[in-house]
Amino acid sequence: MKTVHLNIVQLTSMIDTGCSTVLVRKSALRCCLTIRPRMSPLFTVGNVNEPSASAAGEAHANVTIDGVTADSHDVKIVNDDSIPVDVLLRRTWLELPHIGYYKQGNELIIESNDHLYGTVLTEGSRDNDAQVQQIKQTVTQPLPMPDVDAQLSKLANGRILTTLDLSNGFLQIPLTTEAKDKTAFVTEDTTTKFERMPFGNGMKDAPTTFQRLMSIVFKDLREAGKVNIYLDDIIIPSKTWDEMLEDLKLVLSTLSEANLTLKPSKCSFSKRTLDYLGFRITEGEIRPGRKIDTLTNFPRPRDAHEVRRFLGLAEYFRRFIVRYAEIAEPLTQLIAKDAPYSWQNEQQMAFEKLIGLLCTEPTVPMYNPDAIMTEVHTDASSKALSGVLLQGTKTTDLKMIYAVSKRTTPAET
């Protein structure tokens, strides 16, 4: 028992350090509390199914114990005869499914299912110690993700394009019993675990596992050039309508045999133009996709972080810009380690030139391994090395297919 003060009025109180609620008897309302009528169930130890009492109202009060004051603390108003001998509890962590408890004499016995206690989810937090430890302990299974340029080049001969998208792709992979326990997480109301593979929640190998599954399922069709796979995106490039129907039947049959399901609203059939991996593909030609809008409307960078963001977007489309590294060199100077940030005229010119080159939405043919002529032209300066891949039917009609470039190192200058 302790002496406490509610709004400067002295009262006698029983202190329970495990209780999350301050209860005030109606006879103590001389504390000048403003009551808000509200019925709230209250539970005792050992009885979590039926409330032992009910609060008749709520209020805010300044609670002072041992000289320490909690301003405007929530309190609940109860009848004088409603408090039983046992300590009254609110429904808190003791009621979560991963906790079992019962009374043994005057002791409170708590049993915890620790093997299910994987992750605690707290509002506003993105990571936590449990997830970090799980990620560190995960044995990585290396599998290179498909190269974007290689994926795009396989679509060069496709004149009719069909795209299929799996419904909740990662969640279509069932987990082993051991893996399920590792995905367990706790919320305010319950403890649960995933039955199927989630994206996140410490499953850092989820993309690799999913890509491996798709590669195995579509191995024969991929090797035959009838399908292109990038995670849950399935692309069927066809030359004719009849070929498209035949290949589509094969793909759907393969999906059915593997018990994989599609999301119809995200599937497109028999398209001449396709947005894929940030690019727009139209009958053997490629140009920047919708990402280009973000780049062309990018405001002038105010610091090195924003310069890095701009260059990250621009570099994704560098295949369309001859001597990209040389043009961007004034900007890359600003993101060098320990480099002072100073936006001068040369940075502004480089910034505007890159945007201007991409604003025109450059369109180039896709690489054709059967082209009559293929040439590589190279160039070098003290700032950068560059090269251009060209294809055509004769020297006079060669068209750029792909541009590459890199900054020179101090040793190469």
UniProtKB/TrEMBL annotation:
Biological process GO annotation list?
DNA biosynthetic process
Q: Which InterPro entries match?
A: DNA/RNA_pol_sf (IPR043502), Rev_trsase/Diguanyl_cyclase (IPR043128), RT_dom (IPR000477), RT_RNaseH_2 (IPR041577), Viral_Replic_Matur_Polypro (IPR051320)
Domain named Reverse transcriptase: residues: 1-281
Which SUPFAM superfamilies does the entry mention?
DNA/RNA polymerases
Q: Which PANTHER family match?
A: POL PROTEIN (PTHR33064), RIBONUCLEASE H (PTHR33064:SF37)
- Its name, as the record gives it, is Transposon Ty3-I Gag-Pol polyprotein
Q: Which organism is it from?
A: Sipha flava (yellow sugarcane aphid)
Name of the coding gene: TY3B-I_7
